[in-house]
Design a protein that fits this description.
Number of helices: 8
Order of helices and strands: EHEEHEHEHEHHEEEHH
Radius of gyration: 18 Å
Number of strands: 9
Shape: globular
Strand order of the largest sheet: 3-2-1-4-5-6-7-8-9
Strand content: 15-25%
Length: 272
């Protein structure tokens, strides 16, 4: 007689990356590796190889909304992870879904934003508008934000995101509304980096992290997905963040190069 085994479910919003280095295929592997199950809402399809992205084919806001609500009305979800979005309309659609399901913890990864546009000027304006929409509509709803230290510092320096009178860093995101902030790749001294978690009472916890090999993409998406899956399993934010960072470091240390471009983190690490 078959027994039903309870498996925590995480809803992932993200693009389809055909190389498997990021996006929905990679996130599904991460969830499976950590004992969970991923259900997905496609936000875009990328045309790319392991070196670079050639174009992005965004899904419409209506498609994103229909996909997500169809799943959420059918399957109990324990956590939501939001990855790359490709339009302001898509951000608005995801923000409304997050508001309607505010009881589910939302893990927001603030990574690189890719938009398929025809001219560099147009692309720069579109990206600025997109980042602004994510900061305004999704950061305030995030249970935890995951962002690379270099990107956060750049956004504050370039006034993409105002520090709002705070010292910057995690406090800048918490001033907007994020409950927890995990900053990855914080440089302490040459050769040493840490991942730093800041909580609602400004408490901080830091863990050493592996230096990413050269030609490796931002690993924040990997850590964010692992964190969402672990939250879905019922872990506290500090425990989930600690284990997600450890999983990310191990995956980076075992990165491999399947093609002529970037390295890919091994999302199911091989046991020593």
């Amino acid at each position: 007689m078959n027994q039903t085994i309870s498996t925590p479910v995480t809803l992932i919003f993200g693009p389809f990356d055909p190389t498997g280095s990021d996006g929905l295929p990679a996130d599904a592997i991460t969830c499976a590796a950590l004992g969970g199950h991923a259900i997905s809402t496609l936000t875009a399809v990328t045309i790319q190889d392991s070196a670079k992205s050639e174009s992005v084919l965004p899904c419409s806001a209506e498609q994103i909304d229909d996909q997500a609500r169809c799943l959420l009305e059918d399957i109990p979800v324990q956590a939501i992870k939001v990855g790359a979005l490709s339009s302001v309309a898509a951000v608005s659609a995801v923000a409304q879904i997050a508001a309607d399901y505010s009881q589910i913890p939302l893990v927001l990864h603030l990574g690189a934003q890719e938009i398929d546009t025809e001219t560099p000027t147009e692309e720069e304006d579109e990206v600025d508008d997109l980042i602004g929409a994510v900061i305004e509509l999704l950061v305030p709803q995030a249970h935890i934000v995951v962002i690379e230290a270099r990107r956060l510092n750049q956004w504050i320096t370039e006034e993409v995101m105002e520090a709002s009178g705070h010292a910057g860093g995690a406090q800048a995101l918490q001033a907007i509304g994020a409950q927890w902030v995990l900053i990855t790749g914080v440089k302490q001294r040459p050769g040493l980096q840490t991942n730093v978690l800041t909580g609602p009472e400004s408490e901080t916890i830091a863990w050493p992290c592996a230096n990413a090999p050269e030609r490796t993409r931002d690993s924040g998406g990997l850590v964010a997905t692992a964190l969402a899956c672990l939250l879905a399993r019922g872990l506290s934010v500090p425990k989930a963040a600690e284990q997600a960072c450890a999983h990310g470091s191990q995956a980076l240390l075992q990165s491999f190069q399947p093609g002529m471009g970037n390295l890919i983190a091994r999302r199911i690490p091989i046991a020593p």
